[in-house]
Amino acid sequence: MELRKYIFRRLIEIAIIFFVILTVLFLLFRLAPGDPVTRMVDPNMTPEDAEHLIEQLGLDQPIGLQYLYYVKNFVTGNFGVSFHYGQPVADIILNRLPNTVLLFTTSIILSALFGIFLGKIAAWRKGESTDTWMTIGALICHTVFLPWLALILIWLFAYKVGWFPLTGMISAEVWIDPEAGFLEKAWDIVHHMILPLGTLFMIHFGSYLLIMRSSMLDTLKEDYILTARAKGLEEKTIRNHHAAPNAALPVVTSVGLSLAFSINGGALTETVFTWPGIGRELVFSVSNNDYPLAQASFLLIAAVVLLANLVVDVLYAYLDPRIRYE
Prior knowledge:
Elements: H1 2-31, H2 36-40, H3 47-57, H4 63-75, H5 89-124, H6 129-143, H7 146-160, H8 172-175, H9 182-219, H10 223-230, H11 235-247, H12 249-261, H13 267-272, H14 278-287, H15 291-319
Helix pairs in contact: 1-4, 1-15, 5-6, 5-9, 5-12, 5-15, 6-9, 7-9, 9-11, 9-12, 10-11, 12-15, 14-15
């Protein structure tokens, strides 16, 4: 019952925070330099036509009235029409979101599994060469500059060796081929995904390994580990069934938040690899003052991050019986 009250209270807090974010985003985009109309129209357009376009977009209204329309449209699920694409923002996001979820969810889950597995081994063998090399490798992966790593992988494996495509998510010749089957198209996506997936895997993997190693070292000092050893349990059993599950709790938090933040598509990754996801659209919309698309993208990120924090907190209570919410 206390957990239900905690969830209800948190939902109210999330609603308030989200409304503040919604308001701040509206003001920030209106105060930003630049005019969206000048970026989306023909340079030969007459001033009269430009004014008519501004009137159609509602940008000639007082900012207070624009804000009221903005909140009303959001509540009714109308995110507007993209200034650049001329399509409903909701359709654009729904079209790009699966691409982002596919790439980033896969990379985070794989890196978390490998990070947890190798992190517990590194902690168990603290001070040995295995621990040293794993820690050094994790630090390098965790601190490497992502765009640099991405460009190196593209240059080496796509340009020099030619094993993978340079950019994009699909090959047009495969998808327009009427004889191409499901497996061929699926492999085409996987083939394009390997380099960006490998880049993200290396970045996240180092972080999870270091977190798991640190948490595992603390867990091994707990009294119940000493008790398990006093009972004569095998070292492998103590490591995998007693220490590792409890040590993985901080990793669960990190994975949950990483999944939430991945909804923005990792703007740098998607831009470098020309991956058609939310992150790339976010960069494009901000650069071109596409207010509706940029605002909807940021609000989506904010909503997912806020809810992910709540899910992680609730999940903690189930994973660790010692945690109680009041």
